[in-house]
Amino acid sequence: MKLYTIDTGYFKLDGGAMFGVVPKSIWNKINPADEKNLCSWALRCLLIEDGNRLILVDNGNGNKQDEKFFAHYYLHGDDTLEKSLAKHGFNPDDITDVFLTHLHFDHCGGSIIRQGDKLVPAFQNAVYWSNKRHWDWAVYPNEREKASFLKENILPIQESGQLQFIDVSEPIGDKLGSTIFTENIDVRFVNGHTDSMMLPQIRYKNKILVYVADLLPSAGHIPLPYVMGYDMFPLTTLNEKKSFLREALAGDYVLFFEHDPVNECCTLQKTEKGIRAKEFFKLMEL
Q1: Which of 125, 210, 220, 264 meets the CB 3.0–4.6 Å disulfide criterion with 30?
Q2: How would you classify residue 89: left for phi > 0, otherwise alpha for psi between -120 and 50, otherwise beta?
Q3: What single DSSP character describes residue 274?
Q4: Which pTM does this prediction carry?
């Protein structure tokens, strides 16, 4: 098995929304805001080469939206999905599986591209993986979350016939639900950010690496009260973080961050203030 970081650029989001109840006087030291109160965040995906499968975990914003849409998010940086795949010797047609942690636009926008007046899968040879509970949550969204679920990112996947569902596993006590995806990958389920978000947990180089998606968007979100204003169920997120961080500390897991603008990976340690980051490093250094 080989793992590759796939950078697809950066975008900007309101700092207050990203850090919830934490005051700006505190979070601004973690990720300084610009004059509009916006902070830069990565759109970092993961490529898993596992036997004859090439699995892409999330795929960023994509580029098919109009200028008005992207004007809200200030996309920047030189990296794109295609350039990052090519850097490792791959192209979109090589992808066998697209694993979508959830269907918010910044995680699945690259799933679908425009070909003339048609919307078609960007990965013609891939199975797209979601789960039925989250799919229904996204296709029939609540009013608060509706702006994050764009039908042009979602419905063409199903129309293509390339969509498959992973069975959802419920939590046992305070332990996150888990199900097997491949011999080397389990799926963990969390419900605070959005219903039935999936986190791939990968056995790699005698370690457990978890792609933590929006459970922990960045290392700055490791302290328990640092919960995004975007989360549908903040107290659920807090409890899921508490359970996961205890498990990750005990198991010496590696955390892979999707949105941290600086840090790709970290391990954890126990401190007087609680569980915090221990060592930061790039995936290629593992």
Answers
A1: 220
A2: left
A3: E
A4: 0.96
